[in-house]
Structure of Purple acid phosphatase:
Amino acid sequence: MYPGTLLYRFLALFALVCSIHCIVWYEPEQVHIAIGESSDQMIIVWNTVNDTKESIVMYGPGGKLDQTASGSRTKFVDGGKEKRVQFVHKVVLKGLSPETEYSYTVGSSLGMSDKFAFKTWPLGEKWSPRIAMYGDLGNENAQSLPRLQVEAEQGMYDAILHVGDFAYDMMEDNARVGDNFMRQIEPLASRMPYMTCPGNHEEAYNFSNYRNRFWMPRDGNKQMFYSFTMGPVRFLSLATELWFFPEYGLTPILKQYRWIEETLQEANKPENRAKHPWIITFGHRPMYCNNDDDDDCTHHESLVRIGIPIVHLLGWEKLFMKYGVDLAVWAHEHSYERMWPVYDREVMNGSIKEPYKNPKAPVHIVTGSAGCREIHDKFKSNPHEWSAFRSLDYGYTRMHVINATHLYLEQVSDDKKGQIIDKMTLIKESHGPYQYPLRDVTPKGDPVQKLWKTWGKYIDAASRNRSPPKNVFNWKIQ
């Protein structure tokens, strides 16, 4: 055999191996989208293992790919032992036509993805959004995911709200669990805006997996709270977890509180509330629940509800009343629960016959039963009077904002093969602050998992087996 023949075979083998691995390492994956700063924008996000030096989206209406947009990429180093590296790409499509289906493909000159598609929202406020909502979805026991994927393909939804807790956990196995989860949700998340908030299972390494993988409007994933509008609704995505990891300091808690109040003040200007009469919040840990697990929402002095115990600083419930929040959506408990309208643990129904018509306080629901490896959180045998309906079935919540006055909710049971097990219509003939004295939240001395003193001096650090931080005001964005 001639030396030249050996060299030829070696080069041929090298080319074959390279061709396979180049496709793998530069191949775009984990594609997902979010609404941009306005409804004519769409944020397109994907990952590659290696740096491609460019981030490109080819897109167009009617199945065409005749437009191109470029964006940026960020090097993401997982905090695990392997310090695995990948690159997160972000491109914002702007000037999109309303109510139009766009095809798109993502990647670079080293390789493009398969073709995906999304449909833009109608123009303006006078349309009726349909949304699927759930939290606590893992890549093990993701029982609701197949049904959601089928319904998404049928065009049943305009957006998804994932109310915290992803993958269980995204950081595990040096973030490979997070990679697998993002691949699992790609059929959903590449088709419509997949809007998120952080949960407790995202806390590792300063929430780095959450803050690097997802991109929300105005970079809301970095500070972990943001707002967006959708038809007649203004949504506020909130970071309840800032309350439960005070080693990151009081500064982000105070910053978020001020942002919530400023955002609600702006939303309540007459011209803004006329356009977006519904104000809906979503955050991971509830203010109210009836589960038998000693979580924060089972306590009389819930941190999310009343803020710093004893002094009651920076709690959210009074803000929700003061500025007329209509609906608060939560998860964390692996169950579904619908509350009567409630404030300070007191039922505030509109009337005896029509409790959800012109209620005197916000309505709360908990939808954390999408399915994960931690199974269910059982309920107490003696629920509080503000609990209207409870279920341990795996499932998710559908919301249809019919118009400026009517909002419909229903709970889908995956255990019962898609049967509707609960439904409610919220009627608000006018929107705005609730006409009820904003009394101080009634104090009660019961144990709270995380104890604070004024201005965030963290005590009871032993409860989490961590030493108190040297600087409770530190907040480092990685």
Notes: The domain at 132-427 is CATH 3.60.21.10 (Purple Acid Phosphatase; chain A, domain 2). The first helix runs from residue 3 to 26.
